[in-house]
Automatic annotation (TrEMBL), chains A, B:
This is D-serine deaminase-like pyridoxal phosphate-dependent protein. InterPro entries: Ala_racemase_N, D-amino_acid_metab_enzyme, D-ser_dehydrat-like_dom, D-ser_dehydrat-like_sf, PLP-binding_barrel. It comes from Rhizobium aethiopicum. GO terms for molecular function: D-serine ammonia-lyase activity. Gene3D superfamilies: Alanine racemase, D-serine dehydratase-like domain.
Amino acid sequence: MYLTMFDPSTRLAATTTLDTLETPCLILDADRMDRNITRLRNRLDGMGVSLRPHLKTAKSIDVARRVMSAPEGPATVSTLKEAEKFAADGVRDMIYAVGIAPAKLARVVELRSEGVDLVVVLDTLEQAQAVAAASRDAGMRIPAMIEIDCDGHRSGVVPADHAQLLEIGKILAAGAELRGVLTHAGDSYKGGGVAEQKRYAEAERLAVVDAGRLLRDAGLPCPVVSVGSTPTAHHAKDLTGVTEVRAGVFVFFDLVMAGIGICQVDDIALSVLATVIGHQREKGWIITDGGWMSLSRDRGTGKQAVDQGYGLVCDLEGNAYLDIIVADANQEHGIIAVRPGSDARLPDLAVGDRVRILPNHACATAAQHSVYHVVRGGSHAVETCWPRFGGW
Amino acid sequence: MYLTMFDPSTRLAATTTLDTLETPCLILDADRMDRNITRLRNRLDGMGVSLRPHLKTAKSIDVARRVMSAPEGPATVSTLKEAEKFAADGVRDMIYAVGIAPAKLARVVELRSEGVDLVVVLDTLEQAQAVAAASRDAGMRIPAMIEIDCDGHRSGVVPADHAQLLEIGKILAAGAELRGVLTHAGDSYKGGGVAEQKRYAEAERLAVVDAGRLLRDAGLPCPVVSVGSTPTAHHAKDLTGVTEVRAGVFVFFDLVMAGIGICQVDDIALSVLATVIGHQREKGWIITDGGWMSLSRDRGTGKQAVDQGYGLVCDLEGNAYLDIIVADANQEHGIIAVRPGSDARLPDLAVGDRVRILPNHACATAAQHSVYHVVRGGSHAVETCWPRFGGW
């Protein structure tokens, strides 16, 4: 409903660098991003499944163009606002991967009328009936996928509930379009090592492959069989029966993903640039202007083996300081300190010096900003700015 | 640097109600807000000190006009973006209450050149020297306040460090303008009951009153003596020697403030409107489209006696359901459940039904949105929309 727009009076100066940007702000290392995209694309190409990237992480047309295999998609979105923004940029093949609220079907119909193959997701009879009713009213068959709950994490039809699955399938096939089945192994974010991740991936695969078979055995169509989470996408050994993989955070990675071994710390493409504004030397604190408003309130590593506080501190070239974290944060203040239990030395940073802070959770941190400042490798030069949007 | 703008094509229809708004979105009960403002204003009027409201909570010109005692201020801000936006609306008296980074002084000088009495805050010699240098370069005396660390919470000169306080004071008085002293009792958010809050308030007062006396005894000026936090503002018994009180979250209140007894749950003016999109009945879960993107990742009640999860669930009129909380949240999914240990019954909510969710932390939740939808009391009618902004 509301647009976040670039202010055209403040376009990037040719000489903008990490030393001159206003802080705090969001930095994107495009070299790291490109490497992350290539890594997953190569992996899935080798397994014969297509990648349907989840654009909720970046919410940026510029990133979307780089992460999608073609300008028309496929892609996954988490809001209708994303669907509308990406459709306006030419994306034509999207799944809106959050259970559809009946009142949102009017916007779905509008996008489909414009030639966008937007697919909805659902797991209840009420939603299937609403999609069928909206299809009848609009004179078009709205495609829907049935969400399967592969791990008890969130939404979806429980795999054992064959009756529910078939009944939803019949309503969709009769009154709308049954496009397929979809699941998300949300529990894979808990980690547990490579063997455990392979088990998550196989459970994710089996949940939808079995559901698809059940539908087909009942004479119902199920052309699309969709799985997706960054950890399982990187660990699945076998994707037989799966037609596509959705993943989002792989494009940037973050400390939560590094904490469960899906990436290395120096794969993380996103950081927040902050300026030192003071010290509490007797406490071993460096105070910066990078508080939770710029880092987000996400404390996703708080339950992991290594708690990164509100983020891991790097120098301006993006190299992490050993055991130096944002130990606490207020709205516009970050408190940098040595990680508890470490005998690392606090870096010698004066008032006015700058650091880059790696995020716990890329989706949450990026959402606090309206623009990516794009750098490459260890360079301080800001190549360009890519706007991002929020809202619903 | 970047503006969040209303999309003029989607202005509010006259018939917009809580039943027709796109979800998730932010709701502001203006009756509750007005009551909260009146409560603190009356209290401080009775104590003979002025209120300098912190506008970082609302980041809205419409709310600012209602919470300030006059269109010109005084006010407090947490970013230069706030200072610039409010200055453009006529606010002329502001403290930027985050330690100044030397590189930000150019924007301070620009605003002061336009007739805005913008005051900076600092606690180091380096910052005082930078303010003096910028004053010399700009041919104007930039006013600065010295931050005092009343409770070891964050920034500020330690009260016992008289030498540091006097040296900063001398640099400012000689080369800039020493406007006064300022502190923030951040520890008061921990609660502890009325007697404890009165102790926090008295410690906050003494820290700045003593610092002011030290400066004056050394022949230095100290016209402004500023304290501020919502809990201490509501509990201070004596404010002798204090000239002004800063407070921010009192305007909306939130579950953290209710949890430490500063307000009642039905004083909370802010909520997130969300739609039911599914159930996991055997688990006792209702799934909504109100995930952490709309609620924020703030889990501020997690350390309180009553953990409210990601928020407390209310009906559309704003009445809280007994012991029904958002127990967990993903980016665009909220999981509503009965609070652990309670024998309350889950409300009977169908797919498409709507709820309002009270936030843990108003500043963090409001920051996830670009507009307030204003209602009054239990009415479903949306009176108007007030845009809000973010960024730095």
